[in-house]
Design brief:
heterodimer, A: 285 residues, mainly alpha, two-stranded antiparallel sheet, 4% strand, B: mainly alpha, 0% strand
């Protein structure tokens, strides 16, 4: 949904970069078949989910070729059950995000888009109902203007963790580790997103947990405020990332380990620094 | 069921001894319970740490049981691999763009050089 979970491309091997691209195109192709318009919202997070799933199951996928209308050339892509599962979860999340947005903002374009996604089937009804209740909880927390970022971040983490819960064939300890990982990645995404949107939210008068937690008063210079809270937010984010790395070390991954290593050990940290510094692109090329 | 070190480290069965040791140390560091002091995952890390040590002990016993020579041979094998790592068969052909590609042409060239030298009063190869 946000696109923060991505690899540090310059540190990947060329083979791994090709594999990553193929995963990305695979997700896109799978969306192509189910909901064409959802391609507009495609993000790296879905690719990460598909990668982790494939890696845990120890599958090696084979390249397929098709013509891509966006890039106007032949692309290589992967096709597998894991990617399809990732896509269906992504669509489900997208539907609830759009529902939420439409209720909040009354955005006409999004309301139109929602009509295309309304009839998305969830992979299971229990998953959908739990997702719904968690999303409502999150909205409720945001409406009440929760003074600390911990609680909404925690709820968002639970939402991400939800998708990892009913993966069969895993041992119970591996599942615990995976859920721990997902929860903290979710938390990290939420906090990072809050920091990224700080300026926009303040100017629009929307809710932003960071602004309330660190006491942004009316008429304060936003740039100054950002500079002041940056070290604290960095510390908080790094603490979460520490948990992510610890959980990741305990996972038993079989294939595509290089890409995942790159994402977790380098990509997440790089992305943290990028967002904190407020740059649009990476510093290094 | 107990898993072997190869399963735990996710490596093929014919991995050289040296590489296994490197990987083993890396994973030992990763699972070190000290790192998990404040985490909920401590029991899992603990279990994995012990499992890894146990599997490594079993593996070592088996290697020593096979024979002591095995490890030494293994070592030699990996050194020969590394020394050959940069070599690509079929890549180092002689080039065919010079004037002296074969031995006859080479001698001919030297002869001509020497003759020219003599004509100018010098001496390129004195015995010719």
């Amino acid at each position: 949904m946000f696109g923060y979970v991505r690899p540090e491309k310059s540190e990947l091997k060329v083979r791994e970069l090709n594999e990553f691209r193929a995963f990305y195109c695979g997700v896109c192709t799978s969306l192509h078949k189910s909901r064409y318009l959802a391609k507009l919202f495609l993000s790296y997070d879905t690719v990460f989910f598909a990668l982790i799933l494939t890696s845990i199951r120890g599958k090696i996928l084979e390249y397929k070729k098709r013509f891509c209308g966006v890039e106007l050339r032949n692309i290589l892509y992967y096709e597998s059950d894991e990617i399809n599962l990732a896509v269906s979860n992504f669509l489900l999340l997208l539907k609830y995000k759009l529902l939420d947005d439409v209720r909040d903002e009354r955005n006409f374009v999004k309301a139109m888009l929602l009509r295309f996604f309304e009839n998305i089937p969830g992979s299971s009804t229990t998953l959908e109902s739990r997702l719904q209740s968690l999303v409502e909880e999150l909205t409720e927390a945001e409406r009440k203007r929760e003074p600390s970022i911990d609680k909404p971040a925690e709820i968002f983490g639970s939402i991400v963790a939800l998708f990892f819960e009913n993966l069969g064939e895993l041992s119970s300890e591996q599942r615990t580790v995976l859920i721990h990982l997902a929860r903290h990645v979710g938390k990290w995404i939420y906090v990072l997103d809050a920091f990224d949107d700080l300026k926009k939210d303040v100017s629009k008068g929307n809710y932003n947990p960071l602004a309330i937690q660190f006491g942004l008063t009316h008429g304060m210079d936003i740039q100054e405020f950002t500079d002041r809270i940056r070290p604290k937010v960095r510390e908080y984010l790094l603490k979460i990332l520490d948990e992510v790395v610890l959980a990741y070390n305990l996972l038993e991954l079989k294939t595509y380990k290089g890409i995942l290593d790159n994402i977790v050990y380098l990509g997440l940290f790089e992305e943290t620094e990028r967002v904190l510094s407020g740059r649009k692109t990476c510093k290094r090329f | 069921m107990k898993r072997s070190i190869f399963e735990l480290l996710n490596i093929p069965l014919d991995t050289p001894h040296v590489e296994i040791e490197i990987l083993y140390k890396e994973y030992l560091e990763k699972y070190n319970p000290k790192r998990y002091e404040n985490s909920e995952l401590k029991p899992i890390a603990m279990a994995k740490y012990n499992e890894l040590i146990e599997a490594y002990e079993a593996y070592k016993k088996q290697v020593e049981g096979d024979n002591a020579l095995n490890a030494a041979m293994d070592n030699e094998l990996i050194y020969s691999y590394t020394s050959l790592r940069g070599y690509r068969p079929g890549y180092y052909y002689r080039r065919h763009d010079g004037c002296c590609d074969d031995i006859c042409q080479c001698i001919g060239c030297m002869w001509v050089t020497d003759t020219c030298c003599e004509c100018m009063g010098g001496d390129c190869i004195s015995c010719m």
